[in-house]
Amino acid sequence: MQPRYKRILLKLSGESLMGDKSFGLDPAMIARYAQSIREIHDLGVEIAIVIGGGNIYRGMNEAETGIQRAQGDYMGMLATVINGMALQAGLEKEGMFTRLQSAIKMEQIAEPYIRRRAIRHLEKKRLVIFGAGTGNPYFTTDTAGSLRAIEIQADVILKGTRVDGIYTADPEKDPTATKYDTITFNECIQKNLKVMDMTAFTLCMENQLPIIVFDMNKEGNLKKVVMGEEVGTLVKG
Ligand code: UDP
């Protein structure tokens, strides 16, 4: 059986790296993710990763912090680089070759983001982690994920979350909520379902890039998604 997708972009939130902690990084979580990622790397899938930074810093309310929004956002971008480095270490422990590319130059620890170079790494089966989001304030790492996925011509963006897909309503508040296996971009807009922020979502819609939302914490799920099994929710045109 061949995997359904040849090249993927995996988007992980910073918070997912916290595990049971309330802040920062949980090494056990990183090790688990690295193992799941190795399973799909073994299938020959080309893997790019965008990681968030919310477990360390989120560009916060200016009124609360006294830090201007743009300044806070740059701090958030730096947080994604810390997470990227931690994930890189975990992936290399599992025996994979990786490159960290940053949208903000910091040559001692990461390559600058160069699209063609990233593609070359992927062709050589190196994992590429994109750090520092888009490099611009007022964006999110979901937008960075959509943008990079389109740039490297990934077949799909896999949004690994703690829930197992998109529901008709919030399943924690409404027990009658049911999960969509497949849904179109337009339906998400009509039904006001939040898959990603609008900037990230529109980028995917306009470029016909399918999104799969799935539970990354369930063992074996990432491999199932890549093999085309019906896990999570597929959003497409
Ligand atoms: N950020 C930004 N531009 C980007 C990506 C991220 O300014 O292109 C900042 C923003 O402040 C954001 C923070 O970095 O709140 C962390 O990223 P995000 O909230 O997307 O992380 P996640 O929720 O996935 O952990």
Give the number of domains: 1
Strand order of the largest sheet: 4-3-5-2-1-6-8-9-7
Please state the CA-atom Rg, rounded to the nearest Å: 17 Å
The number of helical elements comes to 8
Going by CATH, the homologous superfamily would be: Acetylglutamate kinase-like
Which kinds of small molecule does this entry bind, naming each only once?
uridine-5'-diphosphate
* Structural class estimated from helices and strands: alpha/beta
Q: pLDDT average, as an integer?
A: 96
Question: What is the top-level CATH class?
Answer: Alpha Beta
Number of strands: 9
The CATH architecture designation is 3-Layer(aba) Sandwich
β-sheet strand percentage: 15-25%
Written overview of the protein:
By secondary structure, the chain is an alpha/beta fold. The chain has a single domain (7-236), classed as Acetylglutamate kinase-like (Carbamate kinase, 3-Layer(aba) Sandwich), CATH 3.40.1160. Helix content is 36%, strand content 18%. The chain contains eight helices and nine strands. It has a nine-stranded mixed β-sheet, with helices on both faces. Helix 1 (27-41) crosses helix 3 (69-93) and helix 5 (141-151) packs parallel to helix 7 (198-206). The relative contact order is 0.17. The model has no long low-confidence stretch (mean pLDDT 96). The chain binds uridine-5'-diphosphate. Uridine-5'-diphosphate binds at residues 13-15, 52-54, 58-59, 72-73, 76-77, 79-80, 133-134, 136-137, 139-144.
